[in-house]
Amino acid sequence: MAARELRRRPGRAALTVLAVALAAALLCALLAIAETAKTRVLSQLSHGGSLAGILVTPNFPNPSQAGLDNPQPGPEHALTASTIAHIQALHDVSSVIPVTSAPVEVLPPPRPPASSKLCQPIRPHGGFCAQQGLPGFGRGPAGSDVVVVAAYPTSVVGVDLGKLSALPVTLLAGRLPRPHSSTEVDVGQQYVSRLGLTRQEATEVLGTFVELGTLQYISSSGGYAAERWVTVEIVGVVDQQAAPGDLVAWPGLVQAEAGWPLQGGALAGSTPSPTYVGAVVIADGLNQVSTVRDEIALAGYSSSAPVGLILSVGRYLHVVELVLSGIGIVALGIAALGIANALLAAVRERRREIGVLKAIGARDRDVLRMFLVEAGALGLVGGLLGTVLGIAMALAIDADANTYLTSQGLAGVQLAIGWVLPAGSVLGSAIVALAAGALPALRAARLPAREAVEA
Amino acid sequence: MTRPPRARLRKLLIVLGLGAAALSPGACSRISATYAGPPPQPAGPRETYVAIGGAETLGFGAEDPRQTWTQILYRTAFPPRATMYVLATTGATVADALAAFAQQALGLKPTVVTVWLGLSDMEMGTPVNEFAQDARTLFRDLRRHGSTTVLVASLVTSATGSICSGADCGLISAYDDALAQAASATGAVLVNVQLGVVAAAARHRGVELVLPGLNGLTPEGQVVVAGLFAAALRHR
């Protein structure tokens, strides 16, 4: 009967559904965007890593800096495999990700200016340009504006990239090196800057090859320096705070760079095995971070974690979330008034019909149910349409924001929509509609049959 | 009263159209969020190249590490996954290389080795027969029963013009012959760097290829030498 009534006045029903849909869409979109923004801001504070992440450095703790999020570390204190195992065994520690590093000499490929045809690559897909032109080696004419970036020393940082979400490493462009690859690396913004590229042009380094050189001083037979060179492909650009260094790779590559096998090597200026330059410790939760940091300090190591900042910013973000929710709820309230108004009008128009129904035996609760079903249907359909529209709006805004962010060389945003928000939005709309329809339905139910028929 | 079928169809089309319009931005944004998978890993064993020598192999005369002939050869003649080791020291003789570099090089299991030695032996007066014996031992060890390609550079004793002059001619020939015989006896490939440099100098008049005093190669000379080794590698 409720459905027949809705079909009888499709214009009014459609407008009421539209009001509910718009309100639900607004609420849904605002909450989705607020939640995503909150996640992004907090992720930025933790440099893309876990919120409960603690960065341990190979230094003694500085007593005068105790309690600070980002303290000045004390004197050097080597991190060893046994120390990492000790931290792993601490109470409230979920996991420990060691960070290794090896010093390398980097030879970036000479970079041709965009759209230049002067520089012919001499290795397919390599991005290397010919040196001064001589037959057989391509031709870089004298005075050509090929940018030759000087070789420079830096470090390659090795981390278990399979645990990216827990690491202070954010992928800005491209992809991560293939698991355990020793021929692929990601580079940081410093590398991009050294090549004279802006953040927006960072993708130009993807697919190019860079040479990494390491030196060992060999003591036997008078002593000499031995060089090792490998060519690795740049597959991604990252923003990383795990350790100082322009390149990020899987630990295997770092180990190969640090400890290549030469008899009599590793006496001076070289590293026989990977050096732990830090460790990312993940506490069981934000509340456990302080306790874990105290225990790490007791073990003799300095640590940093932006937990104070995260909690403080989190409180402000919660206020923003409340304000946005308030706007959505006001819209839903207006929609509820619309439903109430539509149903009140329907009750007035259908007094005679209600009277007839009661005269032939319909009880009050039958009439009540009829109007409540009508209100619930309006709310449910409106909520459903509104939720779809709201998610579509949020996705469109997200896509737009991502285009802008990636054009600025920043990490994109992943919209955080679970099942709770859509389900809550649909159910919430139906409940609000039922509440709005309760008064008109009660009024209809309480109409005396005779009075209704005579109206 | 029932609705005519056409009105019902129109209503259905409107609903479908609205649904599609509402869902399309979401579909588009999902596509932008996906990344292409990693490219296929190049197949085959990894090449290991070891350069053994003296000042020339260290790249004396190059203005940038990229300009050394070993680097140019590594970049142009080897696949991207190759590894290069440079075992060199200024003034290294064949005997030094045999004592210090040979075992290190063998430990690295190289697929290609370049050897550029001899000038220091000549300057230090190593007896030719001793030089020849050491060279043969060095090349034989490096060859690893034929599993390694060994490229041996001849002596570079002149920047341009004639290969040698005056009384030095006999001595230079003796050392060069010793290198050639050792290479031939062990299956190593002799790369006649001297002839290549002279030919390139003739083609590019006015371009300096060798540093004064034969202390190294100019950037242009590094390219020429890398080209000579690359050509020899292509014909291995």
Would you mind describing this structure in some detail?
By secondary structure, chain A is an alpha+beta fold. Chain A folds into two domains: 2-46 and 311-453, no CATH class; 53-305, no CATH class. Chain A has helices at 2-8, 10-45, 81-88, 189-194, 251-258, 289-298, 307-349, 351-359, 364-407, 420-445, 449-454; strands spanning 53-57, 93-107, 152-158, 169-174, 184-188, 209-218, 224-240, 247-249, 275-283, 302-304. In chain A, strands 2-3-8-5-7-6 form a six-stranded mixed β-barrel. The longest helix of chain A has 44 residues, at 364-407. The relative contact order of chain A is 0.19. The model of chain A is unreliable at 113-145 and 266-271 (pLDDT under 50). Chain B has 236 residues and is α/β, with parallel strands linked by helices. Chain B has helices at 5-33, 55-58, 69-77, 94-107, 119-124, 128-143, 168-186, 193-203, 219-234; strands spanning 48-53, 83-88, 112-116, 149-153, 189-191. In chain B, strands 2-1-3-4-5 form a five-stranded parallel sheet, sandwiched between helices. In chain B, α3 (69-77) packs parallel to α9, α6 runs parallel beside α7 (168-186) and α8 (193-203) crosses α9 (219-234). The longest helix of chain B has 29 residues, at 5-33. Classes of the chains: A alpha+beta (455), B alpha/beta (236). At the A-B interface, β6, β7 and α9 of A face α1, α3, β2, α4 and α9 of B.
Q: Kindly report the average pLDDT value of chain A.
A: 79
Low-confidence stretches of chain B: 15-42
Number of strands of chain A: 10
**How far apart lie the N and C ends of chain B?**
92 Å
The fraction of residues in strands of chain A falls at 15-25%
What is the beta-strand fraction of chain B?
A: 5-15%
Task: Tell me the span between the first and last alpha carbons of chain A.
Answer: 21 Å
Count the DSSP helices of chain B: 9
Sequence of strands across the biggest β-sheet of chain A: 2-3-8-5-7-6
Principal-axis shape of chain A equals elongated
Considering DSSP H and I runs of 4 or more, what fraction of the residues of chain A is helical?
40-55%
What is the general shape of chain B? globular
What class would the helix/strand composition of chain B place it in?
A: alpha/beta
Largest sheet of chain A: 6 strands, mixed, barrel
Task: Give the H and E element order of chain A.
Answer: HHEHEEEEHEEEHEHEHHHHH
The overall pLDDT of chain B, averaged over residues, is 78
The level of helicity of chain B is: 40-55%
